[in-house]
Design goal:
By secondary structure, this protein is mainly β. It contains no helices and six strands.
C-alpha cells in the first residue's frame, strides 16, 4: 500500500484479524468474558500506558501512570483506590511516555523511572 496512492477502495484489505487466520470475520463483540472491575480519577489526563508493578508499594500490585501534566500517580491494583503518599507532583513538567520499570541502582529491585 505504500507504493501506490490510497483511494479508500483498499480499506477492506487493510482489516487485520487477531487470530492470524485468513478467514477473519468482522464481529461486534469480544469472545472473551471480560468484566469492568474499577475506574479511578487521577489529577490530569493520561496519554501513556500505565504499568502494573509491586515497586510502588509493599501492599501488593499497583497501577502507576504519569499524567500529562505534573503528576505520577499510583492506585491499588485490586480496587483503584489511591495509595498512601501518592501522587508525586513535578511542577512545570509534562509526561509524554509511560513510566519505566528498571533496576537503576542495581540492588535487585525495580525502580520507577519517569522522563
Amino acid at each position: 500500500y505504500a507504493r501506490r496512492a490510497f483511494d479508500g477502495s483498499q480499506l477492506d484489505a487493510l482489516s487485520i484479524g487477531t487470530d492470524a487466520s485468513s478467514n477473519f470475520r468482522h464481529v461486534a463483540e469480544c469472545g472473551h468474558d471480560i468484566q469492568f472491575a474499577w475506574a479511578a480519577r487521577l489529577g490530569s489526563s493520561i496519554y501513556s500506558t500505565p504499568v502494573i508493578t509491586e515497586a510502588a508499594t509493599h501492599e501488593g500490585r499497583a497501577v502507576v501512570s504519569n499524567t500529562f501534566v505534573r503528576f505520577v500517580e499510583a492506585v491499588h491494583g485490586v480496587d483503584g483506590h489511591a495509595l498512601h503518599g501518592w501522587p508525586y507532583a513535578f511542577e512545570s513538567s509534562s509526561f509524554h511516555n509511560s513510566p519505566l520499570l528498571f533496576d537503576i541502582d542495581a540492588d535487585g529491585t525495580d525502580d520507577l523511572l519517569v522522563v
